[in-house]
Design a protein that fits this description.
- This protein is an alpha+beta fold.
- A hairpin with a 5-residue loop joins strand 7 and strand 8.
- The strands form 3 sheets. Strands 3, 4, 5, 6, 7, 8, 9 and 10 form an 8-stranded antiparallel sheet that branches. A 6-stranded antiparallel beta barrel has the order 11-12-13-16-15-14. The protein has a two-stranded antiparallel sheet with strand order 1-2.
- The chain is globular and about 80 Å long.
- The protein has 12 helices and 16 strands.
- Helix 5 packs antiparallel against helix 6 and helix 10 packs antiparallel against helix 11.
- Among the domains are: about 60 residues, no CATH class; about 150 residues, Trypsin-like serine proteases (Thrombin, subunit H, Beta Barrel); about 90 residues.
- Helix content is about 35%, strand content about 25%.
Length: about 450
């Protein structure tokens, strides 16, 4: 916002002087200052002052809110490879490397030094041996080792096709040793793939066959860490959400990642869905959940739900699908509240969620771009790109700022000729300095 001293300077240059009387301004030099010129100066003052006020007070638009968040949201992949010792029943054993077990989800930087939040169930297969993952890897190993033999001569089929049911039926009877090799990776929107370490886990809610929760059921949150750097980061929302307030879920749904009609670049950029808060619930062990009608799909797990003021209001943890004759229908989805994330982070090195030198520069650049101060915005985006090169949204914003700067330069060139033709003859040479001052203020 313009300081009072700057306002006074502009007014004096326009031929006004503050008067100590009931009227706010008194014209002392009306006989020396053309009326049209004073009108132009007042327009200049209004154009500089009013946008500064509205820019400070105006709430974030959906586009601004999402653009602030997207660079910090990444694709997380859990990959469990294995070597399995297989006996196909013909005597002797072989070591087989089956296709790995892979699960994808969403994570987001909560600290610019390299700490991320996601769901525990996304990285759980890498965190501990899970029975269903072990069984799946052994099944794949058996399929690769024991069902690839030629069938009887003239049968026209693979011997394994004839024995698949038999193999599956005796899978538990075959002695299978297995060595796991688990990894977690995150992929940034610039295509960089980083290995991630699991720092802390609060296990997901699991139920026994009886319907009772297991004793180790937790909050379904995990804290990851990648190598140090200057990463974007998201802070937590201060205020609790209310019924009807909008939320925006950012993530990597599998339906987008695996769509054959889309290019590989679809794997780099997070998708955004929008809905509203539709209720407040509790799960089977009494933990609070936020219910929303914002759509989500497998792969969204761990994604941040941005509140109306820009902070992370919750993390997607569960989706509901209703089965009908026409297939599965999207239902309501559930978020872990921000205050539970904050509690989870207690005792870790993440003391101030959202702290990031990159995000500070990125958000300043977005503000400058919104105010059409393209030169400053371009410089800030270039600095953000220097800190972490190649992020999709940063490159796009930098192009937009540079295009705006070129358009503004073309307009200024045209306006300089107009002002020179009109104001030099009629304003006693005062018009050109005014135009120069107008240029310097942009």
């Amino acid at each position: 916002m313009i300081a009072s001293g700057e306002i006074t300077t502009i007014l004096k240059r326009c031929g006004f002087r503050c008067a100590r009387r009931s009227t706010p301004f008194h014209d002392r030099r009306s006989e020396h200052t053309p009326v049209r010129l004073r009108s132009q100066c007042l327009s200049l003052l209004v154009s500089l002052w009013i946008p500064a006020v509205t820019s400070a007070e105006r709430p974030l638009t959906t586009e601004e809110l999402v653009l602030r968040a997207k660079p910090a949201v990444v694709l997380v992949t859990t990959r469990v490879s294995a070597e399995v010792i297989v006996n196909c029943g013909r005597g002797g054993t072989i070591i087989v490397t089956p296709p790995p077990y892979v699960e994808t989800g969403t994570a987001w930087f909560v600290d610019g030094r390299g700490y991320l939040i996601t769901n525990a169930h996304v990285v759980d297969p890498a965190y501990r041996p899970l029975p269903w993952v072990t069984e799946e890897l052994k099944r794949r190993a058996l399929g690769r080792a024991c069902t690839g033999e030629p069938g009887p001569p003239g049968s026209g089929r693979m011997h394994g096709q004839h024995r698949q049911t038999q193999i599956r039926n005796r899978i538990n009877a075959v002695s299978l040793g297995m060595t796991r090799d688990p990894h977690v990776y995150v992929q940034l929107s610039n295509g960089a793939v980083l290995s991630a370490e699991i720092v802390k886990v609060s296990l997901p809610l699991l139920l026994h066959a009886s319907g009772k929760p297991t004793s180790d059921s937790g909050r379904d949150l995990a804290l990851l860490r990648v190598k140090g750097g200057a990463y974007p980061a998201l802070g937590l929302a201060d205020a609790r959400l209310k019924i009807g307030q909008p939320v925006h879920i950012v993530g990597f749904p599998g339906v987008v990642l695996n769509d054959q009609l889309l290019s590989q670049s679809a794997r780099l950029e997070a998708s955004v869905t929008t809905g509203s808060v539709s209720g407040f619930k509790q799960n089977a062990i009494g933990q609070n959940l936020i219910q929303t009608d914002a759509s989500a799909a497998p792969g969204h797990s761990g994604g941040p739900a941005m509140g109306p003021r820009g902070g992370v209001a919750g993390v997607l943890t569960a989706i509901s699908l209703s089965e009908t004759d026409g297939g599965l229908i999207q239902g309501f989805n559930f978020l872990i509240p921000a205050r539970d994330i904050n509690e989870f982070l207690q005792g870790t090195e993440v003391v101030q969620p959202g702290e990031s030198c990159f995000s500070s520069i990125w958000e300043d650049g977005l503000r400058e771009l919104r105010s059409e101060r393209f030169k400053r915005a371009s410089a800030l985006f270039a600095e953000a790109d220097r800190l972490l090169p190649g992020l999709v949204d940063v490159k796009r914003a930098l192009t937009e700022a540079d295009d705006g700067l070129k358009h503004r330069s073309a307009q200024r060139h045209l306006w300089s000729w107009i002002v020179a033709e009109i104001s030099v003859p009629g304003a006693g040479g005062w018009g050109v300095p005014w135009y120069q001052r107008r240029r310097e203020s942009c």
